[in-house]
Design goal:
By secondary structure, the protein is of the alpha/beta class. The chain has 31 helices and 34 strands. The strands form ten sheets. The protein has a six-stranded mixed β-sheet. Strands 24-32-29-31-30-33 form a six-stranded mixed barrel. Helix 1 packs across helix 2, helix 14 crosses helix 17 and helix 14 runs parallel beside helix 20. The N and C termini lie far apart (56 Å). The N terminus and C terminus are likely disordered.
């Protein structure tokens, strides 16, 4: 019996629910990490990989983008979920052409992504042709020729090039160069679905779409807000930085609808005291806010800071900074001069006393950082919420000084670097002009599709060729049923992948899977010898990454080689870009980057430095702001929040602890006390009773937006201490409930944290109340859509 056949799929009837944990990490995290590695990769590959992860000269963790320290690094510079990510990639399980022969696509469609990924690494390129029922082996040469044939048979605007955040800088640069050489800016990426709201808010207000802090700033801060994120699962190494902050006298305020274990206590597995007791306290204050109530909270905090300044002029607001470096303060102060406390409490679910206590901490702090993640970026008013955070930081001059600034915490380890390299559907003229000058091409100027627009293009049958560099687009996006149907009508889908996933089985009429080296694999089949790549972390540090493991198959190609050969096959020998030179020696790619991308001058020398190098960041480095006016901008936004109609709740999607985006490492959400099941809805016990349901009852979930329903069947209700009026479910299982038009204004990010839902007992379709529900968006000046 093969190792693959022993992998059992998820059995939702085996669901087990226990009490949530109140601390993260500790001995259990170490044990689970080692167990997953030994199960999939064996002792030798596990040891070789874990000793090199996040080390100088090693490879960057394929999980999150949290930075490494500049100074001393621990022998285990990784977390539990980082170890799980490595185990998934370093696995010795193999998906061979013979495996595909024994698994028709119709059978694979009934499997979950958990089962698919557990089958192992794909070893050779395979193709599914029209009329065939399973993938078959194809040579690399024939695969590239097939892609070129389809690309040349259509027009550039009908081709889409999607990118996952794991893609390294050099590969991302080549990929966007290929798309623009072909003639399209259709370059959607996972940022569109997760982080776009941050850039949309930060660029116009502080002149850069990135965070403005370093890891040392977290340590030195007097006050850190951790908003809309779950570091214990999604970026656990952040907990060490927060503990360091508290050890130095700083305070932490956690703002979240769910009482996540990592926001409460942390058992550092690299310290003796991390194995005993409850662990170190992380949050000094925990504000259990309603989903969508953050804008109201930050408006209230701004109001209270201005009140405190009036009582003690010069003690709270940094007037020197405000007067010399900002614009719009008077309008902002006028807008925040008064506050409707009754509505604020209704919007946030917090008491006035809780908000006032937090404001006092803020007023006393001389160095404040606000960290946030997807809990803020995936709502209709996300951009306004982040602008309100900027307002608070500007009030007290929290830019360009130690321990202060804005900190959007990114997901995948190079999602920020991909955007820096030009993966964007709305490129700036400076980038396009630099590409044209460097390579002698004519880049298109018309904006392309983002991820949400790509979904709509699939629905309109406007996509002939879809190329995915990593990722699992079918599962990551909203409106799942419509997206999958559209993908299956496309002429060709191409997936540059390491393991099977759902997107491979909801394929175009012709489909290719091109297997690539992973982050842990050795890349040495080049005339110039072994190669390395580079990544950019959440705090703008660029450093090298180089795998050391023997690849599972001799047929795998590195991502830069795949992109180069696709481009050469499509564009022909007469094209001005020397694709072959870049594929043979990655220093050539970096030389091009150094002349095209600002901040990467002398790239090849600087990336070989001990810690790499940090990209320039005017707000952080010189307290300057590259906006149109040359000053940071205060903005005024109306109050807006999410409030469900009677009989409904506001649902947010979340990750489980055994999950990273659409990759499932296992079936346990240990910190929340849930195992052996994923189709669950977490609901406050009093809300369950008020709606007439019981704990563990089986229901169908219905979401409504602008009068249109979306359904997802067979979910189990679980009584859980979430904020009242709110609920939570795992993605991607709940993505089918997200209407394609439910997006954040300006950023177009799907509203995964803004679903108005009701429950129906499984097997009944009463439809009660559907016609009157219009999305549940409310505010003092914002009518429901």
């Amino acid at each position: 019996m093969s190792s693959q056949s022993r992998v059992k799929d998820i059995d939702e009837d085996s669901l087990h629910v226990g009490p949530p944990e109140t601390s993260a990490a500790g001995l259990k995290a170490v044990a689970v990490a080692l167990q997953r590695g030994l199960e999939q990769a064996g002792p030798v590959r596990t040891a070789r990989s874990l000793l090199r992860i996040n080390q100088r000269g090693g490879f960057d963790c394929p999980g999150c983008a949290w930075p490494e320290p500049d100074g001393h690094r621990k022998a285990a510079e990784f977390c539990e979920n980082g170890a799980k990510a490595v185990a998934e990639e370093a696995t010795v399980r193999a998906v061979t052409p013979e495996w595909w022969d024994g698994h028709p696509v119709a059978t694979l469609r009934d499997k979950t992504d958990y089962w698919l990924s557990k089958q192992g690494r794909i070893t050779e390129p395979v193709v599914l042709r029209p009329g065939d029922d399973r993938y078959r082996r194809i040579s690399w040469t024939d695969a590239f020729a097939l892609v070129a044939e389809h690309l040349r048979a259509t027009t550039p605007e009908r081709c889409v090039f999607y990118t996952s955040g794991r893609t390294a800088n050099e590969t991302a640069f080549m990929y966007q160069l290929f798309a623009r050489s072909l003639g399209t800016n259709n370059l959607p990426d996972c940022s569109n679905m997760c982080h776009e709201s941050s850039g949309s808010a930060l660029n116009p207000t502080i002149g850069i779409g990135k965070g403005t802090v370093s890891l040392e700033d977290i340590h030195e801060a007097k006050l850190v807000f951790v908003v809309g994120q779950n570091p214990g699962t999604n970026h656990p190494r952040m907990l060490s930085a927060l503990k360091e902050c508290r050890d130095r006298g700083g305070k932490i305020v956690a703002v979240n609808p769910l009482p996540e274990a990592g926001l409460l206590h942390f058992k550092d597995p690299q310290r003796v005291d991390g194995y005993v007791g409850e662990g170190a306290t992380i949050a000094d204050e925990f504000l259990q806010i309603k989903v969508g109530g953050d804008l109201a909270l930050f408006q209230a905090l701004g109001h209270l800071l201005l009140e405190a300044e009036r009582e003690a002029r010069g003690a709270v607001v940094d007037r020197s900074f405000v007067d010399s470096q900002t614009e719009g303060f008077e309008a902002y102060a006028a807008a925040r001069a008064s506050l409707d406390w009754e509505e604020t409490e209704r919007a946030t679910g917090l008491t006035r006393a809780e908000i006032e206590a937090t404001a006092r901490l803020l007023a006393k702090s001389k160095a404040t950082i606000v960290c946030w993640a997807l809990g803020l970026t995936q709502q209709p008013h996300s951009v306004d919420t982040i602008r309100e955070i900027v307002n608070l930081l500007l009030l007290q001059g929290n830019f360009g000084k130690p321990g202060a600034g804005a900190c959007p915490v990114r997901g995948h380890s190079n999602v920020q670097g991909d955007r820096t390299m030009g993966i964007w559907e709305k490129p700036k003229e400076g980038l396009l002009a630099a590409l044209d000058a460097e390579f002698g091409i004519a880049s298109p100027r018309e904006h392309g599709f983002d991820s949400t627009q790509t979904l709509a293009a699939f629905e309109r049958d406007e996509v002939d060729v879809f190329v995915s560099l990593g990722g699992n687009f079918a599962q990551a996006n909203s409106d799942t049923a419509a997206l999958e149907a559209g993908m299956q009508r496309a002429g060709l889908t191409v997936h540059i992948s390491t393991k099977p996933n759902r997107s491979h089985v909801v394929h175009g009429r012709t489909s290719l899977i091109l297997p690539t080296l992973g982050r842990t694999d050795r890349d040495d089949k080049h005339p110039s010898g072994r190669q390395f790549l580079s990544v950019e972390d959440s705090m703008s540090m660029v450093h090298s990454t180089q795998g050391r493991l023997e690849p599972i198959s001799e047929h795998l190609l590195a991502e830069p080689v795949i992109v180069a050969r696709l481009a050469a096959a499509t564009l022909g020998e007469g094209h001005p870009v020397d694709w072959r030179a870049m594929a043979e020696d990655y220093d050539v790619i970096r030389d091009h980057i150094s002349r095209v991308i600002p901040g990467f001058e002398d790239f090849n020398r600087r990336v070989r430095q001990r810690n790499g190098f940090q990209l320039p960041n005017p707000p952080r480095d010189t307290r300057s702001f590259a906006t149109e006016a040359g000053r940071a901008r205060f903005t005024v936004s109306p109050l807006e929040y999410l409030e469900p109609p009677a009989g409904h709740l506001i649902l947010q999607t979340v990750r489980s602890h055994d999950q990273y985006n659409t990759t499932f490492y296992g079936q346990d959400d240990r910190y929340r006390g849930i195992s052996d099941g994923r189709r669950v809805i977490l609901v406050h016990p009093e809300d369950l009773a008020g709606l007439g349901f019981e704990d563990r009852e089986l229901v169908d979930v219905v979401s409504v937006f602008r009068g249109e329903e979306r359904r997802a069947d067979r979910f189990r209700l679980v009584a859980y201490p979430t904020a009242r009026g709110c609920a939570a479910a795992y993605f991607p299982e709940a993505n089918a409930l997200v209407h394609r038009d439910l997006v954040a204004r300006e950023s177009n990010t799907p509203g995964f944290k803004a679903l108005t839902v009701r429950f129906e007992r499984h097997g009944t379709r009463d439809g009660a109340g559907a016609a009157s529900v219009e999305g549940g968006r409310h505010g003092s000046t914002q009518p429901a859509p």
